Amino acid sequence: MTPPRVLIVSPALARANNGNWQTASRWSQMLRPTFATTIAQGWNGEPFDVMLALHARRSAAAIAQWAHAKGAASDAPGLGVVLTGTDLYGDIQTDTQAQASLVYAQRLVVLQECAPDALPAALRHKARVIYQSTSTQPPVDKAPQQLRAVMVGHLRDEKSPQTLFATAHLLQGHADVFIDHIGEALDADLGAQAQACAAACPHYRWLGGMAHAATRRAIQRAHVLVHASRLEGGAHVIMEAVCSGTPVLASRIAGNVGMLGADYAGYFEHGDAQGLANLLLRCRAEQRTTDPLYHQLQAQCALRAPLFAPERERATLLELVRELLAPPVA
After folding, report:
1. Helices (H) and strands (E) in the chain, counts
2. Domain ranges of the chain
3. Crossing angle (nearest 10°) for helices 293-304 and 273-286
4. Alpha-carbon distance 266 to 270, whole Å?
């Protein structure tokens, strides 16, 4: 018997090797051999049973084409739309094509538990949460003589690297707190700021872009991961830290709270460099005193780690596709 055919529409293909492509590729592998999968940048009318379209705005043409082919003004059979952070916290507020994609979709896929709150109330019933996954890496021993933090993310406004620069300046008098910053300068001005920060603050290092394996090792070796973003759909680097035994200090934004939980103790307000500096100093102090914060963060991250297991992602993805294949309820 021929397996059902699933088309995954991704704005970017293998050459880009960005988040959209990585999700499309991973999901394609997870769906096989139960389903026959194809990845493309659009839909040419070829018969498929299900279409999973990544990005409400950038895949809007393929989404609309599928809905029109099904004769559906809304809830088009077999159509799942996967929403990114820029969709949820940007495009669907103002972009008419992205808004239309929400209506056309039979199901809206989001990547963390707070994401449905960003949808129009009338459409939240369509939402399905699928946490992305990563491999588990064994924790490594951390040097007790210092605290090393790492922030991972290309230098662009959404990642708020300015918060890290300001924190580094605030911690200049603390020679036992070190900050590594991994990511390419997608914004030349932010790259210049990173260079200036490194020159002024010897304990801050901008390491530029690094291969994924080397970045993962840097996360394992760090005492904490810093994630200062102003906008996220569900950051992969957070799950990589959690699944490496490295606690996270994160900005209190919906995309981070949806990954780490509402009661997580490692939040600072977005843009609050002093708040981040205070958390880093508390984590360092615990190595010498009885402040329980660092161990509390480790325990809380350990409780979240099963959410990011590959077998959980595969099971929820298969459940979604089977739901999209089911005959519509009259």
Report:
1. 13, 12
2. 5-133+309-325, 147-308
3. 100
4. 12
Contacts of 310 (CB under 8 A, 6+ apart): 30, 133, 134, 135
Q: Are 325 and 77 in contact (CB under 8 A)?
A: no
> Which fold, 147-308?
Rossmann fold (3.40.50)
The pLDDT averaged over each successive group of 10 residues in the chain (330 residues) is 93 69 92 95 96 96 97 97 91 95 98 96 97 93 92 94 98 96 95 98 96 95 97 91 97 97 98 98 84 92 97 97 85
- Integer Cα distance of 108 and 79 in angstroms: 9
Instruction: Give the up-direction half-sphere exposure of residue 42: CA atoms within 13 A in the CB hemisphere.
Output: 9
User: Are 317 and 31 spatial neighbours (Cβ–Cβ below 8 Å)?
Assistant: yes
**CA–CA distances in Å: residue 56 to residues 61, 87, 213, 263:** 9, 6, 31, 30
pTM of the model: 0.92
Based on its alpha-carbon atoms, the radius of gyration of the chain, rounded to whole angstroms, reads: 21
- Domain 5-133+309-325 belongs in CATH node 3.40.50.970: no
How many residues does the structure list for the chain?
330
DSSP states of 212-280 as a string?
Answer: HHHHHHHHHHSSEEEE--S--SS-HHHHHHHTTT--EEEE--HHHHHHH-TT-S-EE-TT-HHHHHHHH
Closest CA to 75 of 86, 88, 66: 66
Question: How far apart are the C-alpha atoms of 21 and 81, rounded to whole Å?
Answer: 15
Nearest to 314 by CA among 135, 137, 133, 136: 133
Give the helix, strand, coil percentages of the chain, each rounded to 5: 45, 15, 40
Distance of CA 235 to the CA centre of its chain: 2
